[in-house]
Write a structure and sequence with these properties.
This protein has a single domain (26-172, 182-285, 300-426), classed as Immunoglobulin-like, CATH 2.60.40. 14% of the residues lie in helices and 29% in strands. It has 8 helices and 23 strands. Strands 1, 4, 6, 8, 9 and 23 form a 6-stranded mixed beta sheet that branches. Strand 2 (74-75) and strand 3 (80-81) form a beta hairpin. The longest helix is centred in the N-terminal third of the chain and has 13 residues, at 6-18.
């Protein structure tokens, strides 16, 4: 028997690992993935989950867009053109301008992924709102439309099986083992990072613990990509989830203004699109991370390769700034959050990134878990739900009350209009939406609602962004 030198074994391992079959091959067509949108519950569901029969279907893609952190061209806090703003200059927002390539979740109307769902402009960089009630199942057909980076959707708080976790790490029973064990023996299969052009169907279920408490109608959650979390979220892959008490989604949407608010420092130096932005804004090179150095001769390629691609795509633009944003806007560039006098308002607030924030509104207080307040801390990854009654007429600020975050531009505006002058459709009016922007009152839905196959009834969706 011929003897194979150790160096040749290593070389063969390296060359084999460097060019594997594309991740998710065999699941690359949207049609194939769409066939899994079958309304069938996962094999295992948590104790206490009582299926309502409602399946909330969503069609969401990760795609690259050019994002403008200050689309009005003004520092609307100081009331000056942004190029003249000393605050914007001090924050580093002017060095390379305010237009940056970002990876964002965007909703579609159906599985053709042809037409975007309409999304309120104030929602900004956030992905489409996912809505469901306690007892429902959420089905998401997710397509990665990015050119070179991996992406997933990971729910913050809802229940899922291992397949629908939307996270990328080794699926083994012992650290250091290069073994993926069969489901029957230990760990269920994992849907790792979704490669460019590929798709997957996620199934999340809503257990009672996910829903609101204290008699409130709704509760904030979120979702984000979890291939390499720092790089993924700084690129922009974050979105809101609203969970309603059983049977209360339609009535809540009809009778409350609902505002998704995201506190986020976008650090463009650690976005996985840093190379793209460096090439565009700084004359730098756009390194193709898909050809990144093989870092292991062994290991689980489907785990380390997606992480390595996204990780090495970052850190290519070391002088890139951090933008202190609310919904992806700086210095009150977000469209104003409008509401009418005496409206009931729910603020679904999430914080991401590497800093803690403080939610505070001028002109109004709020209740949080039934207790009145005026300022509330938000740690990274935390979602909180605030209830407001709009009574103080005028335009007011909603801010981060951490001094340096505030000074760097983490400021937005809301306005309470007098009766008879409010540009929004009244709450509770038939067929009207609950948006806070005059052009968003009757947006079409990006979700459909169906009954599980073992039910005979079917229902059409009535959901709004």
């Amino acid at each position: 028997m011929a003897f194979t030198p150790a160096w040749l074994v290593l070389l063969l391992a390296l060359s084999t690992s460097a060019n594997p079959v594309q991740q998710n091959s065999g699941r690359d067509t949207v049609q194939t993935c769409a066939s899994s949108m079958d309304g069938v519950l996962p094999q295992y569901t948590p104790p206490g989950f009582k299926f309502s029969g409602n399946v909330r279907k969503y069609y969401i893609a990760a795609e690259e867009v050019e994002w403008d952190y200050a689309p009005t061209g003004w520092d609307n806090w100081m009331g000056v053109p942004i190029e003249n703003s000393p605050r914007a200059k001090a924050a580093g927002a002017l060095t390379y301008g305010t237009k940056w390539s970002k990876a964002l979740y965007r909703g579609y109307t159906d599985d053709t992924f042809t037409n975007h769902t309409e999304q309120p402009p104030y929602q900004g960089t956030q992905g489409p709102t996912i809505r469901a009630e306690v007892g429902d199942m959420i089905e998401i057909l997710f397509v990665n439309k990015l050119a070179q980076n991996y992406a997933t959707m990971h729910s913050m708080g809802l229940a899922y099986t291992k397949y629908s976790e939307g996270a990328t790490y080794p699926n083994n029973t012992m650290p250091g083992q290069n073994v993926v064990v069969p489901q029957a023996e230990a760990v269920p299969p994992v849907m790792a990072g979704v490669s460019p052009g590929a798709c997957v169907v996620y199934k999340w279920v809503v257990v009672p613990e996910n829903g609101p408490s204290n008699g409130e109608p709704a509760k904030a959650h979120s979702y984000h990509s979890y291939v390499s979390m720092q790089e993924d979220t700084n690129a922009g892959l974050i979105g809101p989830t609203f969970i309603y008490a059983k049977g209360q989604m339609d009535s809540t949407m009809a009778n409350y203004r609902e505002i998704p608010l995201l506190y986020m420092f976008y650090d463009e130096s650690v976005s996985f699109l840093s190379g793209v932005n460096s090439a565009k804004l700084n004359g730098g090179n756009n390194t193709n991370a898909l050809n990144s150095t093989v870092i292991y001769s062994g290991g689980n390629f489907t785990s380390w390769h997606p992480q390595n691609v996204n990780f090495e795509s970052a850190q290519q633009f070391s002088s890139a700034p951090r933008f202190a944003t609310m919904n992806g806007y700086i210095f009150s560039n977000s469209p104003v959050f409008n509401m009418c006098y005496e409206d009931k308002v729910i603020w679904y607030v999430n914080a991401y990134g590497s800093a803690s924030h403080v939610f505070h509104m001028h002109g109004s207080g709020y209740t949080y878990q039934g207790v009145s307040g005026f300022a509330e801390s938000l740690n990274d990854g935390v979602a909180k739900t605030f209830h407001q009654t709009a009574t103080a007429l005028g335009k007011w600020q909603v801010i981060c009350h951490v001094n340096n975050h505030h000074s760097a531009g983490m400021v937005a505006d809301y306005q309470i209009w007098p009766k008879g002058q409010c540009p929004l459709a009244p709450l509770g009016s038939s067929g009207k939406g609950n948006g806070t922007h005059p052009t968003s009152a009757s947006k079409s839905s990006h979700a459909t609602t169906s009954r599980a196959p073992h039910y005979t009834a079917s229902t059409g969706a009535r959901s709004r962004l």
